[in-house]
Fold:
Amino acid sequence: MSQDVYTVEHAAERLKLHPKTILRAIRDERLRATRVGKSYRILRGDLEAFGGLAPRAPASAAGARTTAIVDVPDVSPERADRLMSMVPAVLNSRDPAGPPARADVVYDPGARTAKVVIVASPGDAGAILKIIQVWLES
Structure:
């Protein structure tokens, strides 16, 4: 979540190279990329390493952490099950090299409420909160 992803065209533009040069570097395994359908996606760190660019310090380099609690009223047991499977999935989709993050979901069937407790870097917490907001609006 904390690293930008580039297409071949954007990578070529950023390094001021031709897109075929980027594709050749991927094919020759000098530039790491992930194939998505018929195109490639390149992580910012891999592009910076390939291009000799100075990597930017991540926003969480100072070790800033935030805690967020989301109260969700009127939650059915089925919807609570979906929430309890969605939150860990979001955490597992993060960059494993990024700062640690934790999120727990607690469901009270008697009150039909759920609480999501997030402890993460401000950027990761914000991304998780956005996903929860989209889920709540659906």
Q: What stands out?
A: The longest helix spans residues 77-92.
